Amino acid sequence: MTKRANKPRKPRDEESSDEVSGLTCQHVSKAVDLNSVKKSMQSSVWLVCSECLKERTLIDGEAVGSHEILVCLKCGFQGCNKSGIEHAVKHHQAFHPESHCITISLSTWKAWCFECNEELSTHCNKKALAQTLDFLQKQAVKATSAVSPKIIKLREESDPSRSKSSAIYNSLVPVKGITNLGNTCFFNAVMQNLAQTHMLIDLIQEVKEKGFKLRICPPPETSLTPFTVMLSGPEPLTAAMFLFLQTMKESGKGPVNPKILFNQLCQKAPRFKGYQQQDSQELLHYLLDSIRVEETKRVKAAILKAFNNPTEKTADEETKRQVKDVT
């Protein structure tokens, strides 16, 4: 009999396990999906708990990222680890445990397996944990450099009955027709979607009034302390947008005429004049971008006033630099 050759042992599958404080985690292959995490990050707000955002518990003066955010490495869900809420834990419990059990903290960059109840080493599995960690850290750099200083709404006295009735009211926005101004189906389609975007309606309603107060939190490198500004009235397009959304919410029969809003938009983007067919996505881009420009202008004017300068032309270079840093 011939001597059987010794076959080399196959290396352990890198994607099937990871070292966990001396133990072996067998959930990595099922619970880490880099492509799904990348896809989720395209539509998520960075460093914000997805469930808290839905429940609107991040407003009322609480800074974004004030508590730990954990990312599910299976689907990219961002959940908080705040005591008493723990949306990250609830997410793990709601889905198949072994598929959504591994998370990475966006503040400490530590990986954790809920099933093993242990911390994972992110250096043992280059194709799974290490690559996902590298992607998230790069996203953090992009988000830090791209996001402007956060403007936080001042805390107000909360009325549970009022907030409950408001939530019910907002969930029952009626669906009303919109008058066609002549080949403006592309415009009407966008406005029907925006009229059912409850968070947008609430946000515009909150900031529309003259005298609305905002608390500005400058980035740490500016050495400026947080301060409060008072806004003037909204610019024409923003005011027209609010009027349209309010009209869409009102009870009554008959379609809504969007002529005022459409004309204001055409002044900002003349390409939509002439009542020719246009692309809906382009219109949405121009509409939201124009409103953003108007609101930036309104906030900048309030900050200049807080710095005792009526206009940007009268401000010195140091004041202009400070205003640029916080807007």
Report on the architecture of this protein:
The chain is globular and about 60 Å long. The protein has 327 residues and is of the alpha+beta class. The protein has helices at residues 28-31, 34-43, 50-55, 87-94, 126-146, 160-170, 185-195, 198-207, 236-249, 259-268, 280-306, 317-326; strands at 18-20, 23-25, 69-72, 78-80, 102-105, 111-113, 118-120, 151-153, 213-216, 227-230.
Strand content: 5-15%
The chain-level mean pLDDT equals 75
End-to-end span in angstroms? 83 Å
**Percent helix among the residues?**
40-55%
Count of DSSP-assigned helices: 12
Annotation, overall tally of beta strands: 10
Poorly predicted ranges: 1-23, 57-65, 147-171
The shape, in one word, is globular
- Spatially, the strands of the biggest sheet line up as 4-3-5-6-7
Biggest sheet statistics: 5 strands, antiparallel
Q: In terms of quaternary structure, what is this?
A: single chain
The number of domains is 2
Biased composition (Basic residues): 1-10
Domain USP: 176-327
GO molecular function, one term: cysteine-type deubiquitinase activity
Organism: Neogobius melanostomus
List key phrases describing it.
single chain; 327 residues; alpha+beta; Herpes Virus-1; 2 domains; five-stranded antiparallel beta sheet; three-stranded antiparallel beta sheet; 12 helices; 43% helix; globular; disordered N terminus; cysteine-type deubiquitinase activity
